[in-house]
Structures are given as structure tokens and as C-alpha cells.
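Could you show me just one protein sequence together with its fold in C-alpha cell form as a worked example?
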Amino acid sequence: MRDRLQAIHPSAYFLDQADTKGLTAWLRHRELLDDDEVVSRLAPAGDAIMNLTLRAELRERSLIVKQARPWIEARPEERGPIDRALVEVRFYELIAHHPEISARVPRLLGSNAESRLLVLQDLGEASDFSDLYRADFVYGEGEVEDLLDWLGRLHRLEVPDEALLVNGGMRELTHHQVFVEPMDPGNGLDYNAIRPGLGRLAEAMQQDGAFWRALRALGLRYMAPGRTLVHGDFFPGSFLRTDAGVRVIDPEFAHLGMAEWDVGVFLAHFLLTCHDADTIPQVLDAYPAGPDFDPAVAKGFAGAELVRRIIGPAQLPIETELGHLASLLDLAREWVRTTQLN
């Protein structure tokens, strides 16, 4: 695997959890460590999917080191767009002088383009929001408002029109996972092994030609060029609870696109975390929308994300009844089809 990374650049450093000495030397060469600091231990930092993300423990502090390799870390047999690391670096650079945005993300301490490696502030003992998929967990007071306020500020940020921010490889990956793969009867998923009865729901969706046409049209809107900087993966796995409050991580899916995408993904997971659909208007009211924001398109993207997470390969530990998932798929049908009217 080291050879696959060094084929991208011969001098690329290969991050290895067992190689504390090598990382110490690499960090010291880039003046990211004091002379008397050494990496004493490397351990996984969260349940990384796309990248290798490790906590580097020093004597009195710790760092997060994150590397994008030419594969998806959780599925090494699948290729991953390696420039996602460069996009993430650029995201941090663009927000650095906007404290109302940068205060809620980890600080970028250093990076190396050849190695596709980032060194980030360690936010300390924190957990992501994945517990929300369990029926007995809910958002804390003010957390939804804080997240959507941050998102609105990000979306209002004026950024240059750069080729890097197209993030084409990651968008194509998302497009396939959201708008194509769930509707493919040959996608290889054993639905009834995932959840008894899920195969029946998947088959009904996959045979719905009108929905498939609307979903495909919505996918083209997702891939269209945009001018809004979006996070790209704004869901509970990208949110952290820290002692200092809510923080947002992992902007490797960031791109210039539609604000409605981020909001739609948030709405979908708000429903998947056992919140009632009747509360969606309140969630939309909490988002400081710009004049061009279209709530119907946001709901359409939410519908696509619901389908992806219920009958697609990106399964979540959702604790709910099959009947509730069926009702969410019915809502997804309605929201996606409505986008054809706008």
C-alpha cells in the first residue's frame, strides 16, 4: 500500500500507526514539534471511513494526523480520490480569517501536499453525534441552532472560483452512492440480512420508474457547478460534542455547489435520528437562508439522502421500526418528485 501512495509522489510520507519514530522525525522536520517532543503513542481518532486519522500523543499535548490515501480507508479495495486532502486544507485556509466559522472547526496546524497529510488541533475527549441514531438520544439544547447558524455563515462566505474546489472525484463518489447505487437491484446488498423486510421496501423503490427519473434529474442538479462553499457531508458523524461546545469536522467532501445539499443532508439525518417530520419547518426556520435558497430542493436532497441511508450501502445503526423506515421512504418519494415541479 505504501507503493500506491508513493506512486502519487515519490517523497510521500506513509503514515503508519506503528511508526512513532518516523512520525516524530517527519513532524520535527516540518517544525511542528519542539526539540524535546516525541510521539509516544499513535491511536485511532474516531471511526474513520475515508482517511487514516490518528491521535499522536506527546508528553503534554496531542495532535491529530490525517492522511488521504488512494483508497477508502474503511474499504481499501475501493479507490478514493486522493485530492480530498488538498480540498480539506483549502477549506481550512478559506475560513481561517472568519472566526465565527473557524472557531467551530479544528485548527489546521500544518499540511504536506505530497503526502496528502494534515496535522490538526486535537479537540480533546469528544464523541460524535452517532448516538442520535439510538432511540434514547436527542440533540442537546441549542445544538441544532448552533449547527445551522454555523452552516449559514459558511454558505454566506465569499470564496474564489477555484478548480480545486470543484472536488470532482469526491462529488462523483457521492453522486454514485446517493443517486445511483441505491436504485440498482444488482448493487450486491443482502437487504434482509441487514433488516428483515428491508428487501421488500428496496424492491418497491427500485421499481418506481417515476421516482428514479426524478432522482436522476436531482443528481444532475447536485453535480452542476455552484458558487456556494458547502461542507459536503453535514451529518451527525461530522459533528463533535466537546467541552467547548459543538464542533464540525471532516470537510473533505467540501465543494462549490448548492447550499440546499448541506441543508438536505442535515434534514434527512434529523429524521433518521427519530425526529418527527412535523418538526422540519422549525429546522428550516433555524437555518439563515439566503435569498436564492429553495426549501423544496433541500427537501429533495433530503429525500435522496434518506433513500441512500435506508436502502443504500451506507448503512447506519438506526434503532427504529421497519414501518418507520417505510414512512420515511414514502416521504422521500414525495420530496424528490416535488423537485421536478421547480
